[in-house]
UniProtKB/TrEMBL annotation:
Domain of life: Bacteria
SMART domains to which the protein is assigned, alphabetical: AAA
Gene3D superfamilies: ABC transporter type 1, transmembrane domain, P-loop containing nucleotide triphosphate hydrolases
Annotated source species: Flavobacterium celericrescens
Alphabetic keyword roster: ATP-binding, Membrane, Nucleotide-binding, Transmembrane, Transmembrane helix
Residues in ABC transporter domain copies: 378-611
Protein name: ABC transporter ATP-binding protein
Subcellular location: Cell membrane
Membrane topology per record: Multi-pass membrane protein
One function term, GO molecular function aspect: ATP binding
Length: 615
């Protein structure tokens, strides 16, 4: 069994009843599909006045003789109706039986498809839920190497491909084979000799079709990977549209998109050609066999005779036999098509399980502590940390007492933002430890750790929603009054109150309707509403102009009152009032003290202040 097939099976457990009923109704469909053609025999015999006469009502003997009992019972009634009321009444009976069997066949097909639909849609819902949980739970480090567009393609396109293609396997192993088996059983009963041709046809057809479909899984996976890349190009282009346009780079991005579209075009054409070949090829091979059957069977009806002078095969039986032979063609075509689709579905499943099986390296320990308060200090002890080869932090130690503001300053690449990543456990320390009130943060639940912290980053990450809903992320059950109070602390209410719908105003994609300073003040309001005991400000003003910075600086000072704050700053004007300033260089602390103490040292900090005062 294919590995991906094994992985899909657990998702079917909640829908066991749908699988069961789909199988039951498919069995009934296959049975009545065969019976509908067998019922043509008595109808044709009535038409040709060649009915078997049964004058005595048959008696039930055993379940093993049910076929003979049913046949004799039907012919008894046909004989009775013909003799008592005339052949037209017998014809009405057999026509009614033909209609009934075709009707039941289609009713069972409807119920089978209905249960299959519930199974497919339930699978789609559950896998997407599980994938989203996985995607949102994976550490930040995972996405530094992955394309977001490819993740979207896997979650939306590939899962849908598994749903559409893979579940044709139920048809492949139940409905169509049973239709073929029941039909062949009936054909053997009518003429063993004639059915030998069909036994020759099926393996040849299967061999040819499997040869064509051999490379399909590999090509399907390539096409799905390309589709992921294509969505990434679109997502990145839209995300950076200002840069694309300002650098007149539309041509380069269009070329990148066109190249991907061309590759996808060639792959999908190649897959499509093989897919399209399966149906006509199996039909043509079937028609060739039917032509041989017509010629050979026709001879048995018209030319060959038994010892008593009767034809070797009766005309009515032969016509029903041809109907049954044609009844094999449709499922044979469906099997060849489904076997192709299943390959495509399994290739998509491989990409889905690639994500579902990624190990999440940042998780809660067993019996992790739920920390609800911050009481004394944050301690960073002897940390060595690297993203790739070179250490970003080297033997870094720092203590942040409760209620104090500690600022980290230094050139870009000195490791300041890495401290924020480690405190929030976006990344885990490789050597050393980070402790809150003496408890290692790895021993706390992630939820309780992050509940103690508020984070305001350089990039104001806002969502395409109202101001109210963006700020509510900090506290889902907050009242409008609490939101307005947070906006006032963040120095943002002065512009929010002038908007057409106030806090109910939609701010557009990534807050695109607002200025940089306004977006940053909303980010601060969100952190204020959360009201955490520890605040981490990661370059919170570096992307702002001087006027916006003043507004945001006031907001930050309001927020940091009576709170423990770690401020990562590039602009030194924002951190002069900090209780301790830590100067970093290449991952190490080179100086620390207050603003005045560091100026008096006339060292690295003093040089940074001098450089910025001339900017």
């Amino acid at each position: 069994m294919d590995e991906n097939l094994k992985k899909i099976l657990p998702f079917l457990k909640p829908y066991k009843s749908n699988v069961f009923w789909n199988v039951v109704f498919n069995v009934l469909y296959a049975l009545f599909s065969t019976l509908s053609y067998i019922m043509l025999i008595p109808m044709l015999q009535v038409l040709f006045e060649n009915t078997d006469r049964v004058i005595e009502k048959p008696k039930w003997e055993s379940i093993f003789k049910i076929t003979n009992y049913g046949k004799d019972y039907l012919y008894f009634y046909i004989t009775k109706l013909s003799e008592e009321n005339g052949p037209q009444y017998a014809l009405i009976l057999v026509v009614s039986l033909v209609i009934s069997t075709f009707l039941l066949k289609n009713i069972f097909n409807y119920f089978a498809l209905n249960h299959l639909m519930l199974l497919k849609n339930g699978f789609l819902k559950d896998v997407r839920n599980k994938m989203f949980d996985k995607i949102i739970g994976l550490p930040i480090s995972y996405y530094s190497e992955k394309r977001k567009g490819d993740m979207m393609a896997r979650m939306l396109g590939d899962v849908n491909e598994v749903r559409n293609s893979f579940f044709s396997i139920l048809e492949l192993i139940i409905k169509e084979p049973l239709t073929i088996i029941f039909s062949i059983g009936a054909m053997l009963a009518i003429s063993f000799k004639l059915t030998l041709f069909v036994f020759i046809f099926i393996p040849i057809s299967g061999f040819v079709i499997s040869k064509i479909g051999k490379s399909l899984k590999g090509k399907s996976k390539k096409a799905q990977n390309e589709n992921g890349y294509l969505i990434s190009v679109v997502e990145e282009t839209l995300g950076g549209l200002k840069v694309v346009k300002s650098y007149n780079a539309e041509g380069a991005f269009t070329q990148k998109f066109n190249n991907s579209i061309d590759r996808l075009y060639r792959l999908t054409n190649s897959i499509g050609r093989k897919n399209n070949l399966s149906s006509p090829l199996s039909e043509f091979m079937g028609i060739v066999v039917i032509a041989i059957l017509l010629w050979y069977g026709g001879n048995m009806v018209l030319v060959e005779r038994l010892a008593n002078g009767e034809p070797m095969l009766e005309g009515a039986h032969f016509l029903a036999y041809m109907g049954l032979a044609y009844n094999i063609l449709t499922p044979a075509k469906a099997i060849s098509k489904a076997s192709y689709q299943t390959k495509s579905g399994l290739a998509a499943a491989e990409r889905v399980f690639d994500v579902l099986e990624v190990e999440n390296t940042i998780t809660d320990k067993e019996n992790a502590v739920v920390k609800t308060s911050f009481d004394s200090s944050i301690t960073i002890e002897n940390i060595n940390f690297k993203y790739e080869e070179e250490n970003v932090l080297k033997n870094f130690s720092l203590e942040v007492p409760k209620g104090k503001t500690v600022a980290l300053v230094g050139q870009s690449g000195s490791g300041k933002s890495t401290i924020a990543n480690l405190l929030t456990r976006f990344y885990d320390v490789q050597e050393g430890s980070v402790k809150i009130d003496g408890i290692d943060i790895k021993d706390m639940t992630l939820e309780s750790l992050r509940h103690l912290m508020g984070l305001v980053t350089q990039d104001s990450i806002l969502f395409n929603d109202t101001i109210k809903n963006n700020i509510l992320l900090g506290k889902q059950d907050a009242t409008d009054e609490e939101i307005i109070a947070a906006l006032k602390v963040a120095n943002a209410y002065e512009f929010v109150k002038d908007l057409p719908n106030g806090i109910e105003t939609n701010i557009g994609d990534a807050g695109g309707k607002l200025s940089g300073g306004q977006k940053q003040r909303l980010s601060i309001a969100r952190a204020v509403l959360k009201n955490p005991p520890i605040m981490i400000l990661d370059e919170a003003t570096s992307a702002l102009d001087t006027e916006s910075e003043k507004f945001v600086q006031v907001a930050l000072e309001n927020m940091m009152q009576n709170r423990t704050s770690i401020v990562i700053a590039h602009r030194l004007s924002t951190i002069q009032k900090a209780d301790k300033i830590v100067v970093m260089q290449k991952g190490e602390i080179v100086e620390q003290g207050t603003h005045d103490e560091l100026l008096a040292l006339n060292g690295t900090y003093s040089k940074l202040v001098m450089m910025q005062s001339f900017e």
